[in-house]
Amino acid sequence: MVLGPNRYGKAETRVVRVTRHGDAHHIKDLNVSTSLSGAMADVHLTGDNSAVLTTDAQKNTVYAFARKHGIGAIEDFALLLARRFVDSQPSVHRARVAVEEYAWERNAGSGHSFLRSGREVRTCVAHYDGSAAWMVCGLRDLVVLNTTNSEFRGFVKDEYTTLPETRDRILATAVDASWRHSSVRPTGPDGDPGGDWDRGPDGNGEAANDWDKSYETVRQALLTAFAGTYSLSLQQTLYAMGARVLADCPEICEVRLSLPNKHHFLVDLAPFGLDNPNEVYLAADRPYGLIEGTVLRDDAPAAGPAWE
């Protein structure tokens, strides 16, 4: 018997950072999961803990960095944590930091009162191995719906097929999307751009990634493609959404999408002497079709550990 791949960490550390600028307060509400791997064989095979950075210390680092560096783009925060774990511990060879961000909106224009936003959850997963970094950004539960411009017909029909063809249907889904950046130029160890990480192959400095701008561009590309595609299938819409992201975002090389088909069935009102000209629907929550796919550039660089 041999020990296979392994890692350990602290899952779902909840941290809320309030930044106060006079009467104007700002909130960052995160769920952070850290995971480390490296020279960890002895702890598994003999119980020797001398190489182990405790999961409690990982949790405390999240809180300490939230205070020391603040929290801007979640991608920068994740990369700072990953770099800290690898660069400070000889036994840690690679760090994976996953972050979820929950959005808040101001309540009635107040500087200090907030209500939980109905927006999607923003996500990222950062990897760092001591010399290179990888980043997958994403979002979860972006709920969208088109009331028309969607068909579904011409599909295989066997002895168990009961679904009728339709030339006009509601198309609705809750988008889960992840996208991989071709390159990562993370911040330095103190949260500021600089250092060898920001050097290109010619030695010239490069600006750090603008994660917030990239995120909003991707989000808008997904929404634009969903609204603007005359859909013959949710699979076709998925490809259109991924292709639009790559067209609008040259820094991204791969998009993965998971689209549950949130079915809306016309209600038969004939027993009540009423017609139903595509106006009254039953919104069914399960079972549901689940459409998944990847759209990537034909010259996309190898993913490395990005999708782990």
Based on Cα principal axes, name the global outline: globular
Based on secondary structure, the structural category is alpha+beta
- Quaternary structure annotation: single chain
Give me the strand/helix succession. EEHHHEEEEEEHHEEEE
Tally of extended strands?
Answer: 12
Rg over alpha carbons: 23 Å
Numbering strands along the chain, what is their spatial order in the largest sheet? 1-2-3-6-7-8-9-12
List the uncertain runs.
Answer: 191-206
State the distance separating the first and last CA atoms: 24 Å
How much of the residues is beta strand, in percent? Answer: 25-35%
Specify the biggest β-sheet: 8 strands, antiparallel
Rounded mean pLDDT is 93
Instruction: Classify the helix fraction into a percent range.
Output: 10-25%
How many helical stretches?
5
Task: Describe this protein's structure.
The two termini are 24 Å apart. The relative contact order is 0.12. The chain has an eight-stranded antiparallel β-sheet with strand order 1-2-3-6-7-8-9-12. A two-stranded antiparallel sheet has the order 4-5. The chain has a two-stranded antiparallel ribbon with strand order 10-11. The chain is α+β, with helices and mostly antiparallel strands and 308 residues long. The model is unreliable at 191-206 (pLDDT under 50). It has helices spanning 41-45, 55-69, 74-88, 211-228, 234-248; strands at residues 13-21, 24-38, 92-102, 104-106, 114-116, 121-128, 133-146, 171-181, 252-261, 264-266, 281-283, 289-296. Helix 4 (211-228) runs antiparallel to helix 5 (234-248).
